[in-house]
UniProtKB/TrEMBL annotation:
Residues 1-23, 406-426 are annotated as: Disordered. The keyword Nucleotidyltransferase does not apply. InterPro entries: HATPase_C_sf (IPR036890), HATPase_dom (IPR003594), Sensor_HK_TwoCompSys (IPR050482), Sig_transdc_His_kin_sub3_dim/P (IPR011712). It comes from Actinoplanes campanulatus. Residues 315-406 form the Histidine kinase/HSP90-like ATPase domain. It is an enzyme of class 2 (transferase). Pfam families: HATPase_c, HisKA_3. One of its GO terms (molecular function) is kinase activity. This is histidine kinase. It catalyses: ATP + protein L-histidine = ADP + protein N-phospho-L-histidine. The keyword ATP-binding applies. CDD domains: HATPase_UhpB-NarQ-NarX-like (cd16917). Residues 207-272 form the Signal transduction histidine kinase subgroup 3 dimerisation and phosphoacceptor domain. Its EC number is 2.7.13.3.
Amino acid sequence: MRQADDCGPRAVDPAGPPWRRRGRHANWPPGAVLAASIFHLAGTGELADRGGVHLATGPLYYFLLLAGPVALFWRRRAPFVAVAVSASASIAFASHAEPYWMYAVAPAIALFSLAKQGRRTEAAIAAAAAWAGYLLVTVVLAGPLDLPAGVSPGLREATLAAAGLGGAVLAGVVSQVHRDQMATIARARRERARAEEEQERRQASEERLRIARELHDVLGHHLSLINVQAGVGLHLMDNRPEQAREALSAIKTASAEALREVRSVLGVLRTEGEEAPRQPALGLSRLADLTAGAGFPVRTRVDGEERELPAEVDRAAYRIVQEALTNVRRHAGPEPTVLVEIRYTPGSLMLSITNTGRVAAAAPRTEDPAAGGIAGMQARAHSLGGTLTARPSSGGGFLVTAVLPTGPGGVPPEPALSENGPGVQR
């Protein structure tokens, strides 16, 4: 069963027993204690049956066998104590029994734990000290201590003991390296997941901004046209009903076009599996429809060889022209005329929108510049690596010029496009 994290409501009580202070690994020390105890008792029982144990079964017998496993309870909080106690108990028992690896399991586990904590040098020194102490007691001091015959290890047993202790240290080092690698991989995965989440949030924010800009352009253009035509209709309703009818017809057309474009903009929000929108993509191919429904005379001039443009460039060019015409309708005089110039160059598309009629006095600017208008047109151009300027022309109006890159050629220096009269008033 998965243990609760230390910060959760089922966190381990730090004042509890030592084997329950490790959170996720709370059950591991008792498991090590149990395993070592089984090896010590079962192994020595088999060795005793063969006559290899020279110690009567009693309190001392069990104390020496179980002191090492019990010391493993503290192998994380006090690893050196666990190594010293378990090794001393095993060496003391080895002085009364023939060489046998099973009663040395507890020292091996303690050395493994010490090395796994990253204390490689200390673990190696402890292993060497334990091996030297074993040989000192069972070989060098066997005579002075009057140890039973057969407890002294031969060259083979001494070599195997050294290999076993060294292997326990090596296994702990490998385990520690593997744990660190897994922790690094886990951190990298968390960082990657956070980066992906941040990227998704940023893309969602950019998409919301794009949709808001598209809606501003669509609704601003068509609603301003509807507003102008409604005013004309109200003014002519009594005296010139036929012209009022034309204004109402223009309102109907503009409202229908606005609905179609809004559906096209919001089409990106449709759920997966729905049918794609049938509305043609907005671009300069629909420029004639845009200028025809502007509500005032618009002339268009195209220079250079027309070609298929990247979708984003084509759409941005359409929206820039649309917003410029909306500005003319809002702020120009009663009879504006507009010249739209489009120039194709090898690496860019150049636009110029100029109001060639008289303009009214500059209207106060009440809209949020971040929502659309010049700021929105500039944002469109800059997002594609292009430029856009809106500046007063020699006639007192505004001239909107834009340069949008279309290929490897990049954006050339801004050309001196024509200023045929006052520019677009903003």
